[in-house]
Amino acid sequence: MIVALFEYYSTAVVTPTTALQQEQAPNTSSSLNVNDPNHISIRSSSTQIKSPAGSSSGGDDSRAVAAMNKDKDNSTQNRSVSMVDMYIDNSEPSENVGQIHFSLEYDFQNTTLILKVIQGKELPAKDLSGTSDPYVRVTLLPDKKHRLETKIKRRTLNPRWNETFYFEGFPVQKLQSRILHLHVFDYDRFSRDDSIGECGELLCSLCYHPSNSILTLTLVKARNLKAKDINGKSDPYTKVWLQFGDKRIEKRKTPIFKCNLNPHFNESFSFNVPWEKIRECSLDVMVMDFDNIGRNELIGRILLAGKNGSGASETKHWQDMISKPRQTIVQWHRLKPE
């Protein structure tokens, strides 16, 4: 039996930390570049990965990219692939989102991906008792219908699951287009289970018209926003800054949507940006929770930019806009906590 083993810590939501897929570009989210190897050996790792912020290597969330090197032995014609490095976002989180410890194995002989969910550490408290009832939901995207779940661990912020899941009948070529998504929830007997660690997602579009130098951002909607108020809701609005380097130039805001975790903004903002400056500017998009009394809180944010976006998804969105002028490019993005 030939097995590849990969073990490490990650934030409570892993997206898409462990896709076995072909690298398409330097910013490709976590991938193991494997092309029919007879043997894979992967350096074991137990690295703590902080929640994404600023220049995270992936959209959504926290990411780890395994860069692979292929060597060929001319005498034996054996192929081997070994991991030479792992790129990890080590930026400090703005708040605790917790961590999960898991391992991945791939059995080439039986074409089976083996996931072991080991434990959680320092998960956020979701219940009034100051604890949570956490479990992990596992999906192999893009298939969302067939999902697996660990057992619920009662009243703990440091659960030990030690559960193993098998994804059988997945040759390497098929796994190259799949994304393994681990999502931690807090079980609630009387209402909807709460997400632990995620800030939500934002659907937006970008369009640039070189003829009149107009950059248009349309904020369509958000979903699964993090609840910031004691009623389990938020009062979200979105604030957008046009930036050149670190200098903020122009600000726009959407209306406030009261008690809503899935707001439909349907708001467009246009900015005057000359063509020669379009690669140097960026849009800092912040989803905020309005507060009548205290300070408004950040729910999550993304940085749309051609060079140093908040993730591969945000950078690609900007580059697609530039390469396809006058076209509206629509894309979902995972919000980052900072």
Automatic annotation (TrEMBL):
Residues 21-50 have a biased composition (Polar residues). GO terms for cellular component: axon; exocytic vesicle; plasma membrane; presynapse. GO terms for molecular function: calcium ion binding; calcium-dependent phospholipid binding; clathrin binding; phosphatidylserine binding; SNARE binding. Residues 96-216, 217-333 form the C2 domain. SMART domains: C2. The keyword Repeat applies. This is C2 domain-containing protein. The lineage of its organism: Eukaryota, Metazoa, Ecdysozoa, Arthropoda, Hexapoda.
